[in-house]
Amino acid sequence: MTRQTIPVSIIFSTVGAYAGLGRAALDGALAAVAEVNADERQPFRIEPVVADPGGTAELYGFHAERALSGRSCRHIIGTLTSWSRKEVIPVVERHGGLLWYAFPYEGFETSDHVLYFGACPNQHLLPLLDHVLPRHGSRPFLVGSNYIWGWEINRIARELIEAGGGAVRGERYLPLGAVDVIHLVEEIRQTRPDFVLSNLIGPSARAFVEAYADLGRSDPAFAPSRRPIVSCNMTEIDLEAMGPAAAGHLATAIYFDSLDTAENRQFKERLAARHGMERPVSSCLVSAYSAVKVLAAAVAEAGTDDPQAVRAVVTSRGFETPLGMVRVDPATQHAAVRPHLGRARADGGFDILQSADEAILADPYLVTVPRRASVAGDRPLKVVP
Length: 385
Description:
This is Aliphatic amidase expression-regulating protein. The protein is α/β, with parallel strands linked by helices. It has helices at 19-38, 58-70, 82-95, 125-136, 148-163, 182-191, 202-218, 236-242, 262-275, 283-302, 307-314, 373-376; strands spanning 4-11, 44-51, 75-78, 98-101, 114-116, 141-145, 170-174, 196-199, 229-231, 250-253, 318-321, 324-328, 335-336, 340-344, 350-355, 382-383. The strands form three sheets. The protein has an eight-stranded mixed β-sheet with strand order 7-6-8-9-10-14-15-16, sandwiched between helices. A five-stranded parallel β-sheet has the order 2-1-3-4-5, with helices on both faces. Strands 11-12-13 form a three-stranded antiparallel β-sheet, with helices on one face. A hairpin with a 5-residue loop joins strand 14 (340-344) and strand 15. The relative contact order is 0.15.
């Protein structure tokens, strides 16, 4: 029997300020495509239509338009930043396509033409603050890359902290890719916050962590155990670049390579056996991989790649992934995911300190968040023995 070929657009930047994250996401998506195509039980094979916008956000819409109108694609796996995602959404809405977005973002968005598999603030920022505020204090310094993610995560953090009686000691932004951080670290030294919430990405994050490590060596009051850097977007990819300078700082994610579950062990064994991937795995790779596998399962069940039919399947049941069981809320099209809290090690991995008991339903508009919840810490994650 001849298998049908279904073209699927994959759009990630593998150069630019967040090149490492894009390369990992592309690796994950292509690994999943290879597994789907190797399964002779599938009545179709996926033809990956890969495009690289080169780190230029405005080019994402161009590549999405070309994939949907010129290459007959109906689904797009891709975009990392919110800037690039917002360039693609009007295109998929105009063509009736479906964007599979699999990365943490700032929330306050829904679209019938987007499936959100990454965490939103009640699944990453709130659990992080619930851990940090009672242990370190409620006077943070906020830093971020100068675009939507940094602005919005810091805005939400500031509102939650101030509503709970805390105070932000400072808030600064760096252009994407900027590495001149000396003035920033000096301001932090002078203001002496309780901790630093960092939404920096790529080379900016590396330069900041390295400079902060220098500050900690000269002033023990800035050691990670006393005034940590905490983040919703630090991954194993970042730790590989940062080296020992990142040790002791905290991050939240829906996946860490060190996650000790049967699903994760089997997943990493498959990656090593089939694709030769034996390096630490990041949430970027796993999220893109999982999105492709869910897409394939939904197409097989629906008997078509029609976006409406596929969306109906995806929002009707759960799917087993390396992240665990993933269910997408039909009302918001956001996935319920299970957050974890990790402490960075010098060898490039994370020790998992806490994990939620179960997946947390997405609340993209934070309509159910108690005003003082983050300061009070009344939604603790389960401590890992």
